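Second attempt. The first submission of Molybdopterin molybdenumtransferase had a stray character pasted in from the spreadsheet, which I only caught after the job came back as garbage. Lesson logged: always re-copy from the clean sequence file. Corrected sequence (411 aa) follows.
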Amino acid sequence: MGCGCDAKGLMPIEEAKQIIWDTISPIVEVEHCSLDSALDRVLADDVISPINVPGFDNSAMDGYAIRHQDLSSGTTFSLVGKSFAGNPFSGEIGKHQCVRIMTGAQIPSGADAVVMQENTVANGKEITVTHTVKLGEAIRIAGSDIAKKSVVLSKGKRLTAIDIGLLASIGIDKASVFRKLKVALFSTGDELLQPGDTPQQGKIFDSNRPMLRAMLKRLGAEVLDLGVIEDDPEKIRDAFTQADANSDCVITSGGVSVGEADYTREILEEIGQVDFWKLAIKPGKPLAFGRLNKSLFFGLPGNPVSAAVTFDQIAAPSLSLLAGCTPKENVAIRAIAKNRFRKKPGRTDYQRAVCYREDNGQLIVDSGGSQSSGVLSCFTTSNCYAVLENSRGMIEPGETVNVQWFDSVLR
Ligand SMILES: Nc1nc2c(c(=O)[nH]1)N[C@H]1C(S)=C(S)[C@@H](COP(=O)(O)OP(=O)(O)OC[C@H]3O[C@@H](n4cnc5c(N)ncnc54)[C@H](O)[C@@H]3O)O[C@H]1N2
Ligand code: MOO
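This time the job returned cleanly.
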């Protein structure tokens, strides 16, 4: 593996990501799904609007539709009809005439401004305008939200609740999306109990698998959960084979370090290919990435924080790319360190931290608590990562630090 690795064989995260990006061939199979099941799916085509939204000029206020030019010769109008949302006024308004209009109702022919009700006085059918009105006031012009034939959503967009609203607003009830990613998942370790089991001395509950399953759900993946596999090379080999046959990507946790029961990487090497192992990041150093017969492979470290950080920082963006998503730009946020951040040069740290704004507007970042790789609770007391560059040492109060808000995979 010729690489820009350091003397300890640790690869910079940027290089590792490049290797993954170069490996990935995004999914191409397309299917159609209803809006009800479109959340988090990835668009396989640009969506072009078949209509204008709004489809017709309509009122933004409850009030009266008038001809603006009439205001130059008096402020009193005679009421000639009503325009309700769904029930428009069918006539045309003439000089010094007005139509009672509700929010969302079609602007009557001839009208070019709406006076909000609060700016009028009504006396029977005589309506007096009491405030100045601009030409076009309170009128939502046809096509001002979405113009007919314009691109509303682009291929590669992961659909949000708002996107589903947009699709509905142009009358579309199905989306053309890439098929869901299939991800096989298993934990390794003889120490692992299932949540719900009776606690046992020397054993721990498997927290990584439920956590990763939930994270995969956030990415819209279909998960094949193979459970916990003992630290037995034969069983791990079988699990690899089964996982590979049924998925686009295999994700494991544990067994990637150098211990005597750490078989994951060895087996990857034996039945697949290791593209890299060991990154210059903290936590998450022993992450292994490679390929099996037909799937990608991420061997996440067993420590729960290391599993969460490597999934979030490396596996999640890779899976999004594999799923056909257009990569997102990460906007860097800079904040001032409140207290010292303990750090040694040599790895990029993703420390769990709290970022907030002081009264003077300055963004401040402080540690979220224990940075041990076993302390998962530190995530819940944090809202961001303090991303401390590889070459930096101890960060003193007042120094500037890059901050990355936790995104939807972690929240
Ligand atoms: N001599 C060395 N030892 C270790 C090194 C090293 O470089 N040299 N690296 C350390 C680092 S960094 C990490 S991270 C861990 C990664 O180890 P593994 O991926 O081999 O994971 P395990 O040894 O299986 O487990 C580590 C730790 O995490 C707990 N664990 C494992 N699976 C789960 C799970 N599904 N749910 C909750 N907790 C889990 C496990 O009980 C251990 O406590 O290696 C260091 N060692
Ligand atoms: O990479 Mo390990 O995550 O430092 O504990």
